[in-house]
# Entry
Amino acid sequence: MTRSALTALMCAGILGAGVLVSAPAIAAPAGTAPATGTELSGKTVFLDPGHQGTGHSENLQRQVNDGRGGTKDCQTTGMTTLDGVPEHTINWKVSELVRSSLESLGATVKTSRADDTGWGGCVDDRARAASESGADVAVSIHADSTSTTSDADKHGFHLIVPTLPIPSAAADAAQSEGGRSASTLMRDSYVRAGFEPANYAGVEDGIQERSDVAGPALTTVPLVFVEMGNGSNPDDAALLESPDGQLKHAIAISTGLIDYLLGAETPSTTADTATTPAATTPAAAATASVNPDPTAPTGTAAPAATAPSGAGPAAEGRSALSRLLESVSPYVNALGVDGLKGLVTPDNVSSVSTFARGLLKQILADR
# Structure
């Protein structure tokens, strides 16, 4: 895609309206206005990018409260993917993308660690910080591993939920109600984004119940504990390691959180399922011949724009904003982060929707 084509996309307000007309072309949910940057005003989210950098001298084996009358190690180093990328860095990069997107929509975001170099706190410290933050929801971002070598058979994401009841009445109330609801919405967001639930470790429909994870048992605000994928699986690892994959994970996490924070919308109407013909608007017409694949012949028309697969009756129980945000995903799929280079400039970032602006600013900061 040429720089002029990207500029045309942006100037036409396609990202601002949630309509992405590069292949595959996707229309915004019917009747959904562009994000304004205030949708999450008054909401607080606590982000916990799992583990920590190497620049510390803490004793990871120091025993701390596990929330169930026992103790466990203060912290672990986290896994390393097949290509040698440490989990703490993956968690950090995804968390920063989520933070940027939520802040661009007006949310207050608090985090468990300030960088990816030093210490981030023991598991009980992080749970305490989340609880004291008064957040509407907390999310602990992790990636899993099943082997120190390649494991092609085990793959997929999952959400960890605590075995109930939890000894702490406050933690039990938070996790049995809001925590379970938020975890289910996060699972649904991941599935809609095209991620497959894990097929190992007793995971059922993307949910794994455990009594040995301290965080949920110690946290008194609703907590989502996401394992984005298996770093031992070649396909999962490729997504976890790449900027494109990290952005896809961030979009799935952001939309899951937004569904929880904004609650269910009213039942969808038949307009939500309508199919939008290709190039029926000036913006679409201007970009219908844009070809994101530089190796293909120029002038290739984009496919007809259709409503996102999650629109319509299946979208009940989701916020309209989250359906709008999901329309960013096909653009990432078509172009990848590298394909955004011509778009991500200081001038251009100020022109797009608030949600896209948050993501693009973080991409720009990482380049």
